[in-house]
Amino acid sequence: MELEKRLNLCQSKKPRIFVEVLAVKTYINLQIILQNLGKRFNREWIFRNLHTTLQTGQSYVFVGPNGSGKSTLLQVLMGAIPHTEGTIQYTKDTSEILQIDDWFRQMVLAAPYLELIEEFTLNELLAFHQQFKPFKKSITALEIIQKLELESSQHKLIKYFSSGMKQRLKLGLAFYSDVPVVLLDEPTSNLDARWSAWYRAEVQQLQAEQLLIICSNVPAEYDFCSNVIDLIHYK
Questions:
Q1: pLDDT value at position 95?
Q2: How far apart are CA 206 and CA 78, in angstroms?
Q3: Residue 132 burial by Cβ neighbours in a 10 Å radius (0-12, 13-18, 19+)
């Protein structure tokens, strides 16, 4: 019963996970327009008066010490929590305004607070993910598994993965999903030096066509970004 609940879809698709490449979309020209954006918890302002435009083909990093509001801002940008003041507008091709459901289809997130479905195996999770966010046309599910060096864990439940394996998987899903917007929060947490180097090599390939947004206070995670916004100035 539990297996059926986990993946009726996987029983029919599991053999195809290694060879199927789903149709992909050309990246749209997408902008996130922030006007006097602010977020308050109780009486404390986490950030306020944030005014900027984020667009595809650019990379941005929000920096600041622990507790400066980086993770909160990222969750506001993705639509997970509401903002207190100001506006956020998601536009397509500079004029069409995207509704929140359309926006969710355009973005992918990797963050410490993002929970993977631990009752799935790796194969099942990749198959499930593709139902909502197809992989880029240049890569298959098997190639993703190989890039993450998880070949021996294809049939292992995610709940038995180490913290480092889970973080690699989160980043892999973010890097290889065919969406215009990639959001990363503390991307090298739980990664050793070797996998941190892998992160840097992979993430820099996203800057040319996608909108890359990173929240971090570790320079090695973002020193390649062209736009740096320090949240300490928005209090």
A1: 80
A2: 18
A3: exposed
Contacting residues for 2 by C-beta, under 8 A, at least 6 apart = 119
Residue extents of the structural domains in the chain: 2-226
pLDDT for residue 26: 58
Which of these CATH numbers, 3.40.50.1580, 3.40.50.300, 3.30.420.340, 3.40.109.10, describes 2-226? Answer: 3.40.50.300
- CA dist., res. 48 & res. 160, Å (int): 41
* pLDDT value at residue 173: 98
Residue 51 tokens, joined: 């005014």
For tokens 């009486």, the residue is 43
- Work out whether strand 59-63 and strand 30-41 pair parallel, antiparallel, or are unpaired: unpaired
Q: Tell me the one-letter amino acid at 50.
A: L
User: What is the value of pTM for the model shown?
Assistant: 0.86
Per the document, the length of the chain is 235
Q: Which pLDDT belongs to residue 168?
A: 98
Contact 195, 44 (CB under 8 A): no
Query: Would you state the pLDDT for residue 71?
Result: 97
